[in-house]
Amino acid sequence: MSKAIVSSLYDSDVFRMACRQFDQAADAINLPDAIRDRTKYPRRCLAVALPIKRQDGSVTVFEGYRVQHNLSTGPSKGGIRFHLDVTLGEVAALAMWMSWKCSLVGLPFGGAKGGVIVDPHQLSESELEHLSRRYMQEVINFVGPHSDVPAPDVGTNEKIMGWMMDTYSNHVGHVEPAVVTGKPISLGGSQGRHESTGFGVAYVVQKYLDDLNIPIKEATVAIQGFGNVGQHTALALANYGAKIIGVSDISGGVYNERGIDVKKALEYMRTQKVIRDFDGGEAITKEQLFPLKCTVFVPAALERAITAENAPLLQCRMLAEGANGPTTNEADKIIEDRGDIEVIPDTLCNTGGVIVSYFEWLQNLSNYYWDRDEVMRKLFALLDKAKDAVEAQKRKYKFSRRLAAQTIGIQRVADAKQSRGLFP
Ligand code: NAD
């Protein structure tokens, strides 16, 4: 019998959600009790206090975390989130999902995640730099090219990764680009990393539309969240010929049945930062996006966005999870029972980011840089392989697509742990 002695450290809705998903997957593949809990729970975590001198001379102490879920097959890998709702439990859940995702794609990484409780938009540029550098300074002995490699996530970007890489490099006394991915190209960032998650989402979506015999040019798309992932998903799907009929972000949404001009929307976002008042369509609320009749709905904001309340309202043929953990377990059940929506789970759908992060890490370690075509070709090849593996698992065991993706990821991590043995 499984007898985990686990503290309530991570306890939260989102951590319980990730644990429930793990339990279902572990049951489905009869994962032996002896391996369950150590495959399920994070290996270790660090909480740090980050005092920052503000521009008015005052000092604010921010709180940050780094959770490493699995280190059995290589360094752990996962983004750093700057957001006011960050909790240790959320970071732990996101670290778990990173483990299954890396494992599904066959990357030699375990999962990790980091976060700071802060609204980065309320900081000046220099305050943001101090916070980013301070975070790296505080976790400096916890991360490294061969132990844990951070990347951008919600609220962080290339510039922040550049500051973190610089802080780490100054500490070790030599340039160490492989300590973070998602860096500016000038510091060893990879071609294609910036757009990789969204372009990967779009690639997977068009492949699945193909399977359903839906011509991409007839597809309509609604996207929740118009940041890095949402914007690049919109751009790539529009380039494939789909019509983006609705987008939303934290400020509200916009709807245009004739199709939003994505390039104009991106231009607007560059200066205005939020989609509200964009004149390329009719203004809608964030909530009005869910019931839009469309071929593909892409949640690309935060976790737990599709709930028991709005899942029955969805009028899409496909739910393509750009965000991590966007669908609660209750909503997942409702969608499964409805049976009319193809779910492309996060573990498969948004892996483009970590795949190109892996390419960036490889390029940094070998000091040999690839051109964009090579990056994209290799990205799409790995996505095809992961999709084929998920579909084979789904067919073989009659699993849902989410269960198929998660069982592959979890089984591989468990196998690696089993092979290494229980130390000491
Ligand atoms: P981002 O900060 O660039 O964008 C987040 C977007 O979500 C913003 O437009 C924000 O306004 C919007 N948003 C927040 N709350 C919302 C709400 N209630 N309703 C509508 N919109 C809301 O972040 P990102 O990097 O695009 O990440 C988005 C999601 O994708 C996250 O779940 C993240 O973990 C996941 N993800 C990101 C990457 C990556 O490479 N950046 C990789 C894989 C997965």
Any overview of this molecule?
The protein is α/β, with parallel strands linked by helices. The protein folds into two domains: 13-176, Rossmann fold; 196-344, 3-Layer(aba) Sandwich (Rossmann fold). It has 13 helices and twelve strands. The chain has helices spanning 13-28, 33-40, 88-105, 125-138, 158-172, 193-211, 228-240, 262-272, 329-338, 346-349, 352-366, 372-397, 401-420; strands at 44-53, 59-68, 76-83, 110-117, 148-152, 220-224, 243-249, 252-255, 282-284, 293-299, 315-320, 342-344. It has a seven-stranded mixed beta sheet with strand order 9-8-7-6-10-11-12. The chain has a five-stranded mixed beta sheet with strand order 1-2-4-3-5. Strand 3, helix 3 and strand 4 (110-117) form a beta-alpha-beta unit. Helix 3 packs across helix 13 and helix 6 (193-211) packs across helix 7 (228-240). The longest helix is centred in the last third of the chain and has 26 residues, at 372-397. It is globular, with a radius of gyration of 21 Å. Nicotinamide-adenine-dinucleotide (NAD) binds next to helix 7 and strand 7.
